[in-house]
């Protein structure tokens, strides 16, 4: 399809409908493939060059990342026949080869090879040309050769990972602010801050690009939220409600809303949206539970301090169940965050209608996968007035793809984490650039093995540098604490009080 120097193609043991590509081995996971292409559409790109499809038995395998099984002939034939609906009659010579009774044959059957040679202008019949060659190499090991080829590919990929910073700057920062690429030596005591307006305006295109091209955006309009609530908590200081909101047909958002009891008539309070991580539910941020031990009831504690809090449910539960959802979504140019962003968009719309909510003071604070959400969702939805990323902030490209870092996803169970071309477009600094000029904070435990301090500090330094260049250094900070993968709730609570203009009832360390 891509290389027009190839005069004809013989495809054996592959051609089929691709609508179930999510269930095939993961190396076939191609971002956005089904938005435009099935195998019939790819066949049209070969035209007017010829094509022979041989219905042969697949090299069958099963595993937890996808199965490869021989399809029914009827499925292959239906996809092959679809080519006729896409091309003018006679535009492409092609042939579908099968065995008697629609059974597989080959691979490399005489009838398939004969059809292939005919496309190449060779009319003579297929016949062996003497004895088959014999491998006389004494020390040759095909397994070792395959390993060397694999290492070559890995070394090339790791070179791209190590040099992703240059690609990121070229794509984003230096495109909006070319002067930032200037590395002229200076001895100035102070460099004057510059206006942030051109950067803020230029970032709008990148916000749209991140949503549509990297995370994936569903364009379908939302349903009316139709909120349904029921009271589930009643404490001395606040009341709690379980809330369900419609998003699309068969897609809904839900969470827990905590409302302080001392809200005065006509008073509008700031809101903190508190986001959980993988494998837990909203109550684990409110109650004392075994699953929520490392959240330390921070949604409830913020409500104790007078904030309205909302704890949304994100869909990363069930381990491989949600990962298969990500696989399905990737084929139609979407990801888990295509759903999550839409759910949060609907949540924001609903929160802003509540009479006790200040629509200009809705903040985000998330831990772990909730911290990942704290980067991706507020960078897209600028109605979040600030964001706090806890237990997740990272140098994302090596986190996902490095083979020389022990904390990399290359060595964990998270196989849904890659996003299309993210290493060349957005790392965590770039997503924080999209949060700018809104306040942004990182909460980092020294013993949190989600990353290492050296890489967290490296990536955050780029964020702080940007805020400083525009004279807004007071809007960003990172707090270290001598703990692990958990909510610390010290400097972050003070950060919320400061930037949401809310009095802290007790001293909070910064």
Question: Descriptors for this entry?
Answer:
510 residues, alpha/beta, Rossmann fold, 2 domains, nine-stranded mixed beta sheet, three-stranded parallel beta sheet, 16 helices, 16% strand
Global structural class: alpha/beta
Please identify the top-level CATH class of the largest domain.
Alpha Beta
Q: What name is given to the CATH topology of the largest domain?
A: Rossmann fold
| Weakly predicted, low-confidence segments | none
Verbal overview:
By secondary structure, the chain is of the alpha/beta class. The protein has two domains: 8-119, no CATH class; 197-499, 3-Layer(aba) Sandwich (Rossmann fold). It has 16 helices and twelve strands. It has helices spanning 33-36, 39-46, 73-86, 110-119, 142-162, 164-171, 173-176, 197-215, 298-304, 320-331, 336-351, 369-380, 396-401, 428-435, 453-469, 491-499; strands at residues 8-12, 50-54, 94-97, 228-234, 238-248, 251-260, 269-275, 308-312, 357-367, 386-390, 440-445, 476-481. The strands form two sheets. Strands 4-5-6-8-7-9-10-11-12 form a nine-stranded mixed sheet, sandwiched between helices. A three-stranded parallel sheet has the order 1-2-3, covered by helices on one side. α3 links the parallel β2 (50-54) and β3 (94-97). α2 (39-46) crosses α3. The radius of gyration is 28 Å and the shape is elongated. It starts with 7 loop residues before the first strand and ends in an 11-residue tail after the last helix. The mean pLDDT is 95.
